[in-house]
User: Fold Cytochrome b5 from Polistes dominula.
Amino acid sequence: MASENDTGASTVKYYTRAEVEKYNTAQSAWIIIHDKVYDVTNFVKQHPGGEEVVLEHAGKDGTEPFEDIGHSSDARAMMEPYKIGELVEEERTKNNKKKQDSANGTSNGDSSSSCCIVM
Ligand code: HEM
Assistant:
């Protein structure tokens, strides 16, 4: 079928890292993996690697440790139902194109706003 409604992003919710950071407890645990946001509150108890490791990264970006462990494709499929949204475009790790784009604009002579160094 040619016509798909994939242009309407109405079903996708976008979150900032600051928003995700609020959900950093066992009562409400969100985690960012590959720029996607997962509510793993009900998953942590079932996590084969134990709940602690996941909770340690609750509210944060767990992409690195997630990949470090080398999760199986099974694991990747398992997390799908917990996906609640994605990071806003400007905060995605792979989306550096936009950053470069705005970085070459020197017209912003706002002396009051200091520059942030993102590591
Ligand atoms: C929603 C996110 C996650 C899902 C669905 C998930 C799922 C799984 C699954 C299915 C396994 C069994 C092995 C495999 O199939 O790969 C596993 C193991 C494991 N996971 Fe996760 N995981 C998640 C997040 C994390 C995070 C953020 C960490 C961070 C450190 C982590 C650490 C581990 C560890 C240490 C093991 C045990 C590996 C072993 O015993 O060899 N997982 N996970």
